[in-house]
Predict the structure.
Amino acid sequence: MSLTLYFHPFSSYCQKVLTALYENDTPFTPHTVNLMDEAESAAFRKLWPIGKFPVLRDEAADLTIPESTIIIEYLAQRYPGRTALLPTDPDRAREARFRDRFFDLHVHEHLQRIVFDRLRPPESKDPFGVKQARDRLGIAYAMLEAHLANRTWAAGEDFTIADCAAAPALFYANLVAPFTDTHKSVAAYLDRLMNRPSFARVVREAEPYRHLFPKE
């Protein structure tokens, strides 16, 4: 098998790539990495010194591809399937890319700031940073509420890379800054994502690690 994905099932950015792989039934070898294990971490850093996953290795092409967005674009170009995750039409492709970046930068980044703060010792908490992240999430929610009111998926009527980014971002965001009672269109969109077989599988496979999610 040519493709190997280095990942962890509970990592939100890894879930983004897993959704893309499952969406098209793309054959790959899963390689779970435990960064808390010194030997595993060292071996992974030989492949990608930055030490962040996901990382895709394509042995047939002798390529190592990091970063979730780049991995999905690579899959769309080199290993296309029934779902065109990156539309061929330039305008639609630009919209899908933009929405992908929106979820990563304006939802994902802020929810992670809240989650990481929960993992800090009391003397290192950042209440100002957390408030800022919640405020910015609120802005993103409002923008998404208007954007999603009359469409099925993030970039239109077709499932794309944007929805792969949205699924884990909104799933985890709803745990730290719930929107189901306040933003009905966003909540309905998350429900569609949760019922998409590709992401439903991702959620199911991450279930054994759910206890790792930090509470308030």
About this structure: The domain at 3-78 is CATH 3.40.30.10 (Glutaredoxin).
